[in-house]
């Protein structure tokens, strides 16, 4: 059995504790230590970098072939093929890739990284198929949220079928796009829907997606989606809430630029209080993802507030010196707390 560095350290300490307390013999302790080995973290890092490179190259290739050259349109017009035929063709191609990806998973279930790279082709072909299927929504009164809704359902269904966190992430992104476009359509072209502007609507959506991770945790076939739903939902919630702390529930960009940022002080204060509460809760419950993301946005929040309120009023050197001192103090206290808990 292979364990990462942290897991191997925990198991090693447990075995040592049992051996010191005479709960197990030295022979059994030796057998337990030999039952696992340290995973090659360098290989994991290389696999992750390869995945990122493959995704980047795939997107660049897609942009060069489909967007820049528009070769599909050239072939369609030259041969007189209708848009529906192109949609049908790419739907069939997508189905073939889904079948091949499922078969690959059956034969190589442990090659998760390479399997996810394979799913990039599915993402692109499904996107082209939906684009051509929904070309009829091209007039000024059309609801452009419908293609995004179809994409959400398609990517979500394929993600569950292939147990792909990458496809599920794309489905969540499509859902966010659908929510923005659909509420814009429901509001009749207004930037305010049910009294909410875009940042507030996206904050609520992020909160719903973040909370949906509780549902996936309780449904056994969807448990593999819990971590990615939790992380993406939390990130979307924090990102939208950070935007909300700057714009408030204001829906007029021209009017917003004429207002002083102090007008939205209560939104900034609310966001800061939420972050502090989440960070405290994360440290108490030892939730690494929640702690790390909230700390990142807490730093971003501090810099944002500084540029809003103090950029033209304070000495930059003094401000950043005080900021560095405060972070050093927080880091020192966090280290002392961690050492106290470890002991």
From TrEMBL:
<feature type="transmembrane region" description="Helical">
    <location>
        <begin position="79"/>
        <end position="101"/>
    </location>
</feature>
<keyword id="KW-0812">Transmembrane</keyword>
<feature type="transmembrane region" description="Helical">
    <location>
        <begin position="264"/>
        <end position="283"/>
    </location>
</feature>
<feature type="transmembrane region" description="Helical">
    <location>
        <begin position="313"/>
        <end position="330"/>
    </location>
</feature>
<keyword id="KW-0472">Membrane</keyword>
<feature type="transmembrane region" description="Helical">
    <location>
        <begin position="198"/>
        <end position="216"/>
    </location>
</feature>
<feature type="transmembrane region" description="Helical">
    <location>
        <begin position="113"/>
        <end position="132"/>
    </location>
</feature>
<feature type="transmembrane region" description="Helical">
    <location>
        <begin position="46"/>
        <end position="67"/>
    </location>
</feature>
<feature type="transmembrane region" description="Helical">
    <location>
        <begin position="290"/>
        <end position="307"/>
    </location>
</feature>
<keyword id="KW-1133">Transmembrane helix</keyword>
<protein>
    <recommendedName>
        <fullName>DUF2157 domain-containing protein</fullName>
    </recommendedName>
</protein>
<feature type="transmembrane region" description="Helical">
    <location>
        <begin position="167"/>
        <end position="186"/>
    </location>
</feature>
<feature type="transmembrane region" description="Helical">
    <location>
        <begin position="144"/>
        <end position="162"/>
    </location>
</feature>
<feature type="transmembrane region" description="Helical">
    <location>
        <begin position="228"/>
        <end position="244"/>
    </location>
</feature>
């Amino acid at each position: 059995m292979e364990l990462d560095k942290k897991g191997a350290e925990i198991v090693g300490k447990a075995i040592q504790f049992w051996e010191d307390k005479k709960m197990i013999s030295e022979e059994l302790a030796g057998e337990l230590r030999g039952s696992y080995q340290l995973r090659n973290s360098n290989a994991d890092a290389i696999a992750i970098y390869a995945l990122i490179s493959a995704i980047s190259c795939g997107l660049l290739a897609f942009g060069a072939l489909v967007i820049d050259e528009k070769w599909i349109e050239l072939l369609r017009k030259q041969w007189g093929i209708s848009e529906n035929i192109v949609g049908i063709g790419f739907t069939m191609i997508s189905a073939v890739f889904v079948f091949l990806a499922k078969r690959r998973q059956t034969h190589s279930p442990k090659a998760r990284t390479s399997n996810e790279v394979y799913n990039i082709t599915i993402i692109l072909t499904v996107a082209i198929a939906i684009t051509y299927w929904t070309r009829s929504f091209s007039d000024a009164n059309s609801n452009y949220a419908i293609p995004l809704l179809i994409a959400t359902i398609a990517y979500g269904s394929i993600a569950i079928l292939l147990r792909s966190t990458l496809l599920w992430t794309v489905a969540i992104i499509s859902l966010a796009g659908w929510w923005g476009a659909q509420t814009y359509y429901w509001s009749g072209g207004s930037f305010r829907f049910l009294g909410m502007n875009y940042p507030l609507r996206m904050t609520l959506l992020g909160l719903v997606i973040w909370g949906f991770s509780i549902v996936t945790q309780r449904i056994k076939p969807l448990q593999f989606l819990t971590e990615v739903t939790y992380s993406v939902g939390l990130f979307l919630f924090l990102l939208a809430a950070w935007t909300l702390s700057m714009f408030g529930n204001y829906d007029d960009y021209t009017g917003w630029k004429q207002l002083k940022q102090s007008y939205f002080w209560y939104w900034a204060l609310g966001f800061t209080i939420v972050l502090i509460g989440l960070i405290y809760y994360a440290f108490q419950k030892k939730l690494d993802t929640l702690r790390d993301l909230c700390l990142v946005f807490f730093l971003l929040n501090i810099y944002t507030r500084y540029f809003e309120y103090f950029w033209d009023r304070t000495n930059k050197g003094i401000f950043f010196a005080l900021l560095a001192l405060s972070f050093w103090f927080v880091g020192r206290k966090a280290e002392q707390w961690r050492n106290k808990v470890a002991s």
